[in-house]
Structure formats: structure tokens, C-alpha cells
Specification:
Elements lengths: L1 H20 L7 H7 L10 H16 L6 H12 L7 H13 L4 H16 L7 H11 L5 H12 L4 H16 L9 H9 L6 H14 L4 H13 L9 H17 L13 H9 L6 H13 L5 H14 L5 H17 L1 H4 L3 H6 L6 H14 L5 H12 L4 H17 L4 H12 L5 H17 L4 H12 L5 H14 L7 H13 L2 H17 L4 H9 L7 H19 L2 H11 L7 H14 L24 H6 L19 H5 L5 H16 L12 E2 L3 E2 L7 E9 L3 E10 L4 E12 L5 E7 L1 E4 L3 E11 L8 E13 L12 E6 L3 E3 L5 E3 L8 H8 L4 E10 L3 H12 L2 E2 L12 E10 L4 E10 L4 E10 L2 H12 L1
Antiparallel strand pairs: 1-3, 2-3, 3-4, 4-8, 5-7, 5-9, 6-8, 9-10, 9-11, 12-15, 13-17, 14-15, 15-16, 16-17
Length: about 950
């Protein structure tokens, strides 16, 4: 609440400031477009025109969108200003033409004016700007007409013009225009002619030369080698060009397999020598670039690494904050893989712990945490305790990540580390920061058994004053798992019961469940737990009362009933339900509405098929799978359209999580032809078949059954004053498919801004199944207009059709993510399958920002999920192995070992090993990835 009020206050202050000082306050697009008429006057005011253009640009930067007609109006008016000989106004004219570009039909109008400016001696200072605009707005088909002007600009004596032409060439090349590759001679001439000594020309020329040759590694290698050998080279005298050349040299080394790679045959040596020689450059920028590049080179020799680290160490004591930050940031990355190489810098980094720049101090702290030896942990944590209270949460999170690594590195220091975490947990901080500390304590408890008692006690003390509901629930859930096996379990009961008395209903319900876990697993505490639960049966909240009543009766039954009661109590305590909650809920509703209470409800009759969008983990599952958090089952990959952040928040209404599933199932149950199908094997997430801004918005949900598919089309009518009747979807197979349409159920009527549902039922043909297919889809309907007088739809109408995107089926649609394994764990199940149905192969996944992204892409492609936390890649890792699992529609188990690694160009290489109870399914998974 405090943060929200602070944000409102800031917004109010900004609004008041804008009202008092901003010249653009209160302007409206319509009024400004009317002012554009000033451009058409015979002698327009340069100052007035400049103000109008500024307003137009301001409106666009604020998110205003100009329609095609408005943009054309502005464009034709602005072209009149080429007659005004005012330099400042001409610059604004260029800017608005770039920001509100003309259509291909309008481009021809402005090209002649721009060419005139390029050739004009009166406007020489605007020649470079004119070239930039010309390249920006010219269509590819017209580029040949202006090519000679750009080539002349490249070799122009004015460095501003030359740089403008070179940068324009870079933009054109990125847009895929191969015409630029013919300008090599002009680019080299601009770089080496010596007609001007502008460092920017050399920088841009080198960048364009490299870009032209980028597709040919040998050509790039020759370019870099020739430039590094030449004394009067492109980069001579240009700090930026020299820094760029260092990067290109590093890229050449990486293309050869890394530094000192025997297979390179010594060809990488000249490039490595050049980078090392750059450590002695006169420019601090080049020196840092060389040092940063050297420490990042794979396979770098120890001598070269030490030389680079020594240079970075000198920068640590620089009076310039930017150099100190750059150096400590580079050393921080080195410490991830080679902490011993950074250790000599520890004394200098300790001096940076009190640096006035918080970013520098934070990086110094985290680097010290990675490089310090076990004997220095006590002193370092003492310094850290005084430091961490004076920085913001974003810096604290970075420090905490390093502390977590230290916890696992020096396990014998768990007592002092646990005390440190407990102390900072009591300090002020936001939710993410506090949750990260709790996760770290949980990690210590799980990984270091000796820290269990103190860790649980610290967590109990924290929830006494915890202001975050979800954190309290997470800790109580962890206590229910670890507390009963503790030697001092009785000490935790007081803290847990206090939550029942003092907290909100969400925490109270979780506390009741935790008490039951203690009573179930601790016979000596059971009488006390039964007494405490008896006090909870009169709680104001239904959920708390129901839990307390159920758990109390289960504990009482343990003392007097037989094995069946004990089995029930154990299942209840372990939260083991043999079917999905959504299926159980639906079956119970059917049982109640039927009124057949003479026959007891049989849970064995509930379907175990899991709709994908209903396969949402519990709060406890999510916590157990957080990075560095509790152990347990794994989260489903994010294939659902339901907002997981809201679902996983313990305070959220979980019935909302399943409301989408309930709605889908009720739609199907209400259709006589589909009502006997039951729950599907899996329901895929909605697939958009139109853009969201179109007049008819259509998405499709695939409900997969054992031998059939129900395609559910969700159709939204966004056109006012019409009603759509008898709405259906026509699906036409574009290739051989094993599924044939048997019938469809159209939507009877869809009013404006309403959503209707049409269904198509397809049954699989006997024999060998083909699990892929592609269908052309179109929407057919009757359009009836609304009578404005009566407000009712007219009786007559007309037939219409709307083409949709193609719809595809793949084998991944028939795969259900698997959370539980036949042999209890992934490893045991993997070993049990053996090599008989195993298939391994290697693939390239192309460029990826991270290995997490690559894992997510593979899971989405083959329909599996990550297991045992392996879908989370450690920070900074260049290789990783993930374990994936799923169940195919045939009932076959599919287990996958996914080996991933980055190559030198950030492309991901993948080794995929699949084991399944069916060799055909293993082949099918590889076909999905290979295709």
C-alpha cells in the first residue's frame, strides 16, 4: 500500500511538473493536424513550422497512432517545407519523414527533393542527413536509382557525410539488401584514403566491411588479419575501430575452436597476439576491451589470463567510476569459472566494498564471495552484514545469489551462514528479497542435514512477523514436510498454532494442514494435535473449519480403526488423490445433482485423464521446484494460457484456475452428441486462427481422446450492429490424415462482443495412426443486421465466409506431460527402460538467448515437461543436461535426456536421447525435433 501511494504521489508530481513547464501539455492530435495547414502558406514561418513538427513528433512518441490518411496529409504538407531555406527546420523535416515514413507510392515525391539537397552546395551541412533519410524511406525496387549518391557519399571529404553513407549501408545490409556488397571498393577507399582523420569514419567503415563479409568465415579472417598487420590500417587512430577490431579478432579465434586449439594449427596465434598487444594501447577503452575479451576466450593460456587480470586489477583503483565498474564486472564473470585467477585482486576489491557507487560495491562483494577461501568467510560476512542494509533490494538479490553459492561451497560454515541469513531476514525488504532468503535457508536445510534444526527454527521465528501471506504458506508447507522428522518437533507446534490464532484465513488453513502432518507422523504429539484441531473447528472460514474437522476425524480414526483408516489418513496427509481435482469436482457435482445417494460415491469411477490446461501444480509443488527451493514434483512447462503467477499465489482463488477447464467440459457435456465422451486425455491450449484485431476473432482448442478429437472453436464477433447465425467451421484436410470428420455442432447465434462455440468431431481411422495433419479452415455463417429502431436482428440475412489460418496436428498434441514415474524417479524409470527402445541423435537449434529458452522450445515441440528441477539452467552455464518426461496417447512412457551446449556463435547444439516403452514413439519424438 505504501509503494502504491508513493507511486501515485510521484505520478501526481510529474503531472503537475508537466502542466507547469512542458510546452506540450494538453495538446491534442486533432488540433495539431489542423495546424499543419500552416505548411501550405506561401511564406510559412520557420519557427511556427518547427513547433508544429515538434508537436507531431511528441504525439507519436507518446503512443499516438496516425492513420493512413493522417500520415499522408502530414507527408504532403511537410514536402512543401523543402522550399524553406532554414537549416534547423530542414533537420526537423528530415526527422518527421523518417519517423512517419511515406508509403511506396508517395516515396517518389520526396526522392527528388532529397537528391537535390544531396547535390546542393547551399545545404552542405545537411547532406549526410539527407542521405540517411533517402536510404530510410526508399523502397528496395528504387534503390538502384540512388546507389550512386550513396557511393559518392561514402568517399566524400566531409566525415559527417561519409559516416552517414556508411551507416546507411549497414542498415540496408541488415535489411537483406545485397546491393551494398558491391560497395567494397568505396568503403575501403573511405577507410584508407586519409582524406579526413575522423575516428567515426574508420569505425563505420570497419563495421561495414565486416558486415559485408560476415557470411564467409575465411573472408572475415583475412579482413581482420590484413587490418591488424597494416600500420596505416582502418583502425589506426580510432579508439572505437580498434575496440571493434579486438572483438572481430576474438570472433575469429572462436570460429577456430578457441584459443590454443591444436586443431587450428597455430592460425589463431596472430589474432591472440594482436589482442594481447592491445593491452598496451594508449587508450583505456581499447585496453579494457582487450582485457575483457581475453578473460572470456575459451582455452586461454594461463599467462595471457594473468596479464588480462593484472590490467583489470589496475582499473580497480582508477578514479573513474566507469572503469572501476567495468573492471569489477569483468572479474566477477571470471570468478564464476576460475576463482583462483581472481584471488590476487581480493585486497583491491575489499577496498571497493565502501565505494560510493552501489553497483561497484555490490559487484565487489559478490566477487569476493566467489573467490574468498574458507578462512575468510567469518570476516567477510561481518563486513557484508553492515553493507547489505544500506543498499536496495535489486542489489541485495545479487549479493544473495553469491551467498547461496558460498553456502554450498563451504558447508562446514553452515552455522554462521544460517545466522547471517536469519539476521538479514529480519531486516526491511520487499517480497522477492525475503522469498529469496527463505529459499536459501530451505536449500541449506535440504543440502546440509546438520543445519536442519536451526534453519527450521529461524523460519518459525520469521513467520511470527511475516507480512507476506504466500511466504507464510510456503514456510508452513515446508514445516509440514521436514518438521515431523526433526529431533525438536515439539518446539515448532507453538509457532504453527499461533498462525491459526493470529493470521488471515489462507495462512490459518495452511497451518491446520501443517498441524495434521505433525499429528500424522508424530504419535507422541497426536493427542495435543487433536486438541488443537478441535479448537479450530469453529473457525469463521469454511476452508479452515472443513480442514480442521476432516483432519481431526482422520487422526481420531487412527487410534480405533483398522488398516483402511490408516491408509486413508496417510493418503490424506500425503495429498495423494488418484485423479485430477477438476475430474473429481465434476464427478461429485454429477453425483449430487443425480440424487442417487443410495449408492456410495466411488472415487475409482473418476476419470484419470488430465486436460493439459487443468494440469496446474499446487502451491507446494511450485515452491518445491523454485530454484534452490524445496525438493519434490516438477512444474509443468508453461504451455497453459492461464496466468500462472495468479494461480501460484497462495491467496488466489484456485477455483478460478479450473474455471476455464470447467467451462470447456460443460460446453461439451451440454451437447448430446459429445456428452458421453467423458474427460479427454489432454486438452491443448487455445491456438489463435486470426489476429486479435480482426472483425471475427477465432481460436481453437484441441480436446484429444483415445481414438478421436474434438475441435472446439471459440468465435468472437467484434462487429457492431450485426448478429451471426448458424456459425460453423469448415475443415479441409491438406494432406493424408488418419482423422475424418463425423459431425459438427455449429453455434446458433453470436451477438456483437459475444463469444460462441462451434465443435467438430473427428474419429481416428483403424489401423496405423498418423498423428500429424494440416487443415485449411474457414468460417461460414449467416449475417443478420440489427434494426436501429427495434434493436432486434432482421429476419433476412446473407451468407458469408471468412478464411482462417491453417490448423496443424502434430504428435506433440498427443503427448501429456508426466509428473509421476512408474519406478518412483526419473533415473529408476530410465534404467528400467534400458537401451532396447533408446534412440540418440544430435541436432542444431540455431541461435538462442539462453539454454532455458532452448529447453522450453524442445518441451513445446515434443509435448514434455522438465523433471527434477533440470529445466532450470544455472546462471552463466554454457552447457546443461535436462530430463524431460511425458505419456503418449497410446499409454507409452517417454523419457528424454536433453544435452545442450552453446557454440562460439551462441548457437545451441543438442544431443537428444529418447527412451520409451515403444521404439516407434522414440522415433516419432526424433522426427518432431528433426522436422
Amino acid at each position: 500500500m505504501g509503494d502504491e501511494m508513493e507511486n501515485r504521489r510521484k505520478d501526481k508530481d510529474e503531472d503537475e511538473y508537466e502542466e507547469m513547464y512542458s510546452p506540450f501539455y494538453g495538446i491534442e492530435k486533432g488540433a495539431v493536424l489542423q495546424e499543419v495547414r500552416l505548411f501550405n502558406e506561401p511564406q510559412p514561418s520557420s519557427r511556427g513550422c518547427a513547433q508544429i513538427i515538434s508537436k507531431l513528433l511528441y504525439l507519436q512518441n507518446q503512443g499516438e497512432v496516425y492513420s493512413k490518411e493522417e500520415a499522408s496529409k502530414v507527408f504532403f504538407a511537410v514536402t512543401k517545407l523543402f522550399q524553406v531555406k532554414d537549416v534547423n527546420l530542414r533537420r526537423l523535416v528530415y526527422l518527421i519523414i523518417k519517423e512517419i515514413p511515406p508509403t511506396p507510392e508517395e516515396v517518389i515525391i520526396v526522392i527528388s527533393s532529397l537528391m537535390k539537397d544531396i547535390n546542393s552546395a547551399e545545404f552542405a551541412e545537411g547532406k549526410g542527413q539527407a542521405i540517411r533519410v533517402l536510404c530510410k524511406v526508399t523502397d528496395v525496387s528504387l534503390l538502384g536509382q540512388i546507389e550512386r549518391y550513396i557511393k559518392q557519399g561514402i568517399v566524400d571529404k566531409d566525415p559527417a557525410v561519409s559516416s552517414a553513407a556508411l551507416v546507411s549501408g549497414l542498415h540496408l545490409l541488415r535489411a537483406g539488401n545485397d546491393l551494398v556488397k558491391r560497395w567494397v571498393n568505396e568503403v575501403q577507399e573511405a577507410a584508407t584514403s586519409g582524406r579526413h582523420s575522423s575516428p567515426m569514419v574508420a569505425f563505420h567503415a570497419l563495421a561495414l566491411l565486416h558486415k559485408i563479409r560476415q557470411g564467409d568465415r575465411l573472408a572475415v579472417s583475412k579482413l581482420v588479419a590484413s587490418v591488424t598487420r597494416s600500420k596505416g590500417s582502418v583502425s589506426q587512430g580510432s579508439v572505437l575501430a580498434q575496440s571493434l577490431l579486438v572483438r572481430y579478432a576474438a570472433q575469429c579465434i572462436a570460429d577456430m575452436g578457441g584459443a590454443n586449439n591444436p586443431s587450428a594449427g597455430g592460425q589463431d596465434r596472430p589474432f591472440a597476439d594482436f589482442i594481447e598487444s592491445s593491452l598496451r594501447n594508449r587508450s583505456e577503452t581499447v585496453i579494457f576491451e582487450a582485457a575483457r575479451t581475453l578473460v572470456a576466450l575459451p582455452g586461454i593460456a594461463n599467462r595471457e589470463l594473468q596479464a588480462a587480470v593484472q590490467v583489470l586489477q589496475l582499473f580497480l583503483t582508477s578514479p573513474k567510476p566507469v572503469l572501476r565498474f567495468a573492471a569489477v564486472r569483468a572479474l566477477n564473470k571470471v570468478a564464476l569459472t576460475q576463482p583462483s585467477a581472481v584471488s590476487p585482486c581480493n585486497v583491491d576489491m575489499e577496498g571497493l566494498m565502501n565505494d560510493p557507487n552501489r553497483a561497484v560495491a555490490t559487484l565487489a562483494i559478490t566477487t569476493l564471495l566467489k573467490t574468498s577461501n574458507e578462512g575468510g568467510v567469518d570476516r567477510l560476512l561481518q563486513q557484508l552484514g553492515a553493507f547489505i542494509g544500506n543498499i536496495g533490494d535489486e542489489f541485495r538479490m545479487v549479493v544473495l545469489d553469491a551467498v547461496r553459492e558460498m553456502c554450498l561451497k563451504y558447508r562446514s560454515k553452515h552455522r554462521i551462514l544460517m545466522t547471517f541469513l536469519s539476521n538479514i531476514l529480519r531486516e526491511e525488504g520487499g517480497f522477492e528479497y525475503k522469498k529469496a532468503i527463505v529459499d536459501t535457508i530451505v536449500l541449506l536445510v535440504n543440502e546440509i542435514p546438520e543445519s536442519k534444526e536451526s534453519g527450521l527454527l529461524h523460519l518459525c521465528e520469521f513467520i511470527e512477523d511475516c507480512e507476506f501471506t504466500s511466504l507464510s504458506v510456503q514456510i508452513l508447507d515446508f514445516l509440514s514436510e521436514e518438521g515431523p522428522s526433526s529431533d525438536k518437533q515439539a518446539n515448532f507446534i507453538r509457532y504453527i498454532y499461533n498462525r491459526v490464532m493470529l493470521e488471515n484465513e489462507i495462512v490459518r488453513a495452511s497451518a491446520v494442514s501443517t498441524l495434521y502432518s505433525f499429528g500424522l507422523n508424530s504419535p507422541n504429539l497426536r493427542p495435543r494435535i487433536i486438541t488443537l484441531l478441535a479448537r479450530c473447528v469453529h473457525d469463521n472460514d469454511d476452508e479452515v473449519r472443513d480442514r480442521a474437522t476432516l483432519y481431526r476425524e482422520a487422526l481420531l480414526a487412527l487410534a480405533v480403526e483398522g488398516p483402511a483408516a490408516q491408509e486413508f489418513a496417510l493418503d490424506l496427509g500425503g495429498r495423494v488423490i488418484p485423479c485430477p481435482i477438476v475430474n473429481l469436482k465434476s464427478s461429485l457435482e454429477t453425483y449430487i445433482t443425480s440424487g442417487a445417494f443410495d449408492t456410495p460415491f466411488d472415487i475409482e469411477s473418476v476419470s484419470t485423464y488430465v486436460p493439459e490446461i487443468a494440469s496446474i501444480p499446487s502451491v507446494a509443488s511450485e515452491k518445491r521446484n523454485a530454484p534452490g527451493a524445496l525438493k519434490g514434483q516438477n512444474l509443468l512447462s508453461k504451455v497453459s494460457t492461464i496466468d500462472e503467477e495468479n494461480i501460484l499465489e497462495p491467496g488466489a482463488d484456485t477455483s478460478v484456475s479450473f474455471s476455464i477447464v470447467d467451462a470447456y467440459m460443460k460446453h461439451i457435456a451440454d451437447i448430446p452428441q459429445l456428452s458421453n465422451l467423458g474427460m479427454p486425455f489432454i486438452s491443448r491450449t487455445p491456438e489463435e486462427l486470426t489476429e486479435s484485431e480482426t472483425e471475427y476473432v477465432v481460436s481453437c482448442v484441441k480436446h484429444i481422446y483415445k481414438d478421436s478429437i474434438v475441435f472446439q472453436f471459440n468465435i468472437t464477433n467484434s462487429i457492431p450492429d450485426i448478429v451471426l447465425d448458424n456459425v460453423s467451421v469448415v475443415m479441409e484436410a491438406l494432406d493424408d490424415s488418419s482423422f475424418e470428420e463425423e459431425f459438427q455442432v455449429p453455434s446458433t447465434s453470436i451477438a456483437c462482443d459475444k463469444t460462441g462455440h462451434a465443435f467438430i468431431f473427428m474419429r481416428g481411422q483403424p489401423g496405423e495412426m498418423n498423428y500429424s495433419g494440416k487443415f485449411a479452415c474457414s468460417l461460414k455463417f449467416m449475417v443478420r443486421e440489427i434494426d436501429p429502431n427495434s434493436g432486434h436482428a432482421e429476419e433476412s440475412g446473407y451468407e458469408d465466409e471468412y478464411v482462417l489460418e491453417e490448423l496443424e496436428l502434430s504428435a506433440a498434441d498427443f503427448m501429456r506431460p508426466m509428473n509421476a514415474f512408474p519406478q518412483g524417479s526419473f533415473r529408476a524409470s530410465w534404467d528400467n527402460l534400458g537401451d532396447m527402445s533408446s534412440r540418440a541423435d544430435e541436432y542444431g537449434l540455431g541461435y538462442r538467448n539462453s539454454l532455458d529458452e532452448a529447453i522450453s522450445a524442445v518441451c513445446s515441440t515434443i509435448g514434455t515437461i522438465g523433471c527434477e528441477g533440470t529445466d532450470k539452467v544455472p546462471s552463466g552455464a554454457r552447457s546443461h543436461t535436462a530430463l524431460l518426461a511425458g505419456t503418449f496417447i497410446t499409454g507409452d512412457v517417454v523419457l528424454v535426456r536433453l544435452g545442450l551446449a552453446f557454440d562460439a556463435t551462441q548457437n545451441v547444439l543438442m544431443k537428444l536421447v529418447v527412451r520409451s516403452t515403444s521404439p516407434e514413439i522414440s522415433e516419432l519424438m526424433h522426427a518432431l525435433v528433426g522436422g
